[in-house]
Design a protein that fits this description.
The protein is an alpha+beta fold. The protein has helices at 18-31, 63-75, 107-123, 145-148; strands spanning 7-15, 40-42, 49-59, 80-92, 95-105, 136-142, 161-164, 166-175, 178-188. It has a five-stranded antiparallel sheet. A hairpin with a 2-residue loop joins strand 8 (166-175) and strand 9.
Length: 191
Amino acid sequence: MGSMGKKIRLFIAIDLPEAVKDVLAETAVRLSQNVPNRAIRWVSHDQMHLTLRFLGDTAVSQLPDLQQELAKLATQYQPFQLWLRGAGAFPNPKRPRVVWVGLAGDLAPLQKMQATLEDRVVALGWAREKRPFSPHLTLGRVKDAGQARGLNWDVKLVEVGFGVTAVQLVQSELRSSGAVYTVLQEVPLNP
């Protein structure tokens, strides 16, 4: 297979500090107390992140342009603060498909950065996202909706805060054991 045709699965994300991942993992455990083990596939600790844009299958030949755009984007934004705020589900807690933790804090620069990023990747040839960007951290994906109704939505979430100081371009390889993530590029925001 020539390098021209080679494709890799990519997404652009914000990494989370260990302390935040710990809180998310603990929250998942508390949410799932009344739910059978296999009803939900929980995101593993090392794979927790804030997705800015899922790019999907991308030609390797597009990497240089993508990395250049990401580097340019990062220089336009200064670090900002976010914190965890509440748990929920898409489309709703009665029919959960995706279980998530919400975000609060400096959402305006986050939204603005994501909108700029969206324009950049569209200019590079990606189709524009149909759904509006909704800042959240995915905790798990529901496998069995009937059993997932037992989720304990009363959990008290520790509203831990974190600074956003960089964006990452991440490769996702799907294996039988699950996805494996590799950071291809990390660009610091403009301090």
